[in-house]
């Protein structure tokens, strides 16, 4: 029998570690796995938990240049030799011992997730250790050494998938995946992110729509700082479902960086865990509606490593396992005790941020009309105007 959900996890993934002062602390992965375990998600029927080996150079070179892979290998043995020309040894991507193996293991996790979903071994797959979407073919960028999402998508295309949709919900533009498939009409990349005027990597404009052979297949929803739940969910629902349905992909790959959260220290949105959970639910439904359930869900950014990342990615994993956790559920006390022991912080009490006093999570659908006085709506309309006609969609009504 196929697995309901294949979940990638092993403590080896915590070796992806840029050092104690770096915001991408590996404890976020460990705490996520522990919270999944504490809530029984990993023990749910049909859930398979798997580790991953180090990807071969042959696999990495389906996306990355051979000289870059060699440079990563060299810096992994001697971090002091890291070459900034390859984005290595920088403040964002400092070299560390074992960097190649740690990064290549993440790639295998996503690659094998794609393989399992495509071959029918699993309906859904989750690699919350992955989603390293900034890595370029010849350089590290934005805390990302190898681009696991791109390697997985390339394997799908080489093994029978006619079309793949990639939806990136990280607060930062998914520039690496977009760049790699910029002129490939078989891949639809959609990135919903904070404007590059305010945030790294400074790219991802509505008019960036793909190369000459793939116009309209790169989609960028560039949103203003300070965006709350209602605006973020409105932007997602006003763009992603219609485009994915029109594209008719065989597989849906999604990236769930949770740095959209109001408490994230590196960005400027004001989104809650509740909204992030709602977005994951929407991607899950879309995979069932369009792709026969073939869904690969990845992690990504997220730098509030105690209060946000573990809850958001536990929700993601639980949704894929078809055992969703309510936002009103209590966080298990044994997990909170562990968090306090290792971090000196108590950790959140509930699986969501909103309370009954906040009212239900609500957003205004696009069908309710376009408001030109709204900065959010103008941003959404810029994207719809740029790409919807290229997919045969109406900018106002689809």
From TrEMBL:
Q: Name one GO biological process term.
A: acetoin catabolic process
Q: Where is the Histone deacetylase domain?
A: 22-318
Task: Give GO MF terms, alphabetically.
Answer: histone deacetylase activity
Keywords, A to Z, come to: Acetoin catabolism
| Pfam families with a match to the protein in the record | Hist_deacetyl
Which pathway does the database say it acts in? Ketone degradation; acetoin degradation
| Superkingdom of the source species | Bacteria
For the keyword tRNA processing, the answer is no
Entry-linked PANTHER family? HISTONE DEACETYLASE HDAC1, HISTONE DEACETYLASE HDAC1-RELATED
Which family does the UniProt entry place this protein in?
A: Belongs to the histone deacetylase family.
Q: What is this protein called?
A: Acetoin utilization protein AcuC
- Organism of this sequence: Humibacillus xanthopallidus
């Amino acid at each position: 029998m196929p697995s309901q959900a294949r979940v990638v996890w092993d403590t080896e993934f915590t070796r992806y570690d840029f050092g104690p002062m770096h915001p991408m602390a590996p404890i976020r992965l460990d705490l996520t796995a522990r919270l999944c375990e504490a809530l029984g998600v990993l023990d749910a029927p049909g859930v398979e938990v798997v580790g991953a080996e180090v990807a071969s150079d042959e696999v990495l070179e389906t996306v990355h240049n051979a000289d870059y892979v060699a440079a990563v290998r060299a810096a992994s043995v001697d971090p002091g030799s890291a070459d900034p020309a390859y984005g290595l040894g920088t403040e964002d991507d400092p070299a560390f011992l074992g960097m190649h193996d740690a990064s290549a293991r993440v790639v295998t996790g996503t690659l094998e997730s794609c393989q399992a979903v495509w071959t029918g071994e699993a309906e859904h797959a989750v690699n919350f250790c992955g989603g390293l979407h900034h890595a370029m073919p010849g350089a590290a960028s934005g805390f990302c050494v190898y681009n696991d999402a791109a390697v997985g998508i390339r394997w799908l295309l080489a093994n029978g998938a006619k079309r793949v949709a990639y939806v990136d919900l990280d607060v930062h533009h998914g520039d690496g995946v977009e760049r790699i498939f910029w002129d490939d009409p078989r891949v639809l990349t959609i990135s919903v992110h904070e404007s590059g005027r305010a945030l790294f990597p400074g790219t991802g404009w509505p008019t960036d729509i793909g190369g000459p052979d793939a116009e309209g297949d790169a989609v960028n929803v560039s949103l203003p700082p300070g965006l709350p739940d209602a605006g973020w969910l409105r932007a997602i629902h006003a763009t992603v479902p219609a485009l994915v349905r029109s594209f008719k992909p065989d597989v849906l790959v999604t990236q769930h960086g949770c740095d959209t959260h109001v408490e994230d220290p590196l960005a400027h949105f004001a989104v809650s865990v509740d909204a992030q959970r709602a977005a994951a639910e929407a991607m899950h439904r879309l995979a069932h509606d369009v792709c026969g359930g073939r869904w690969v869900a990845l992690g990504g950014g997220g730098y509030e490593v105690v209060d946000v990342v573990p809850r958001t990615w536990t929700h993601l994993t639980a949704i894929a396992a078809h055992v969703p956790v309510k936002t009103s559920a209590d966080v298990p006390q044994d997990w909170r005790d562990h968090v306090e022991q290792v971090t000196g912080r108590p950790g959140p009490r509930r699986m969501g941020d909103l309370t009954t006093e906040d009212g239900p999570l609500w957003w205004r659908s696009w069908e309710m009309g376009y408001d030109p006085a709204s900065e959010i709506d103008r941003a959404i309309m810029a994207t719809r105007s740029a790409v919807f006609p290229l997919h045969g969609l109406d900018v106002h009504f689809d």
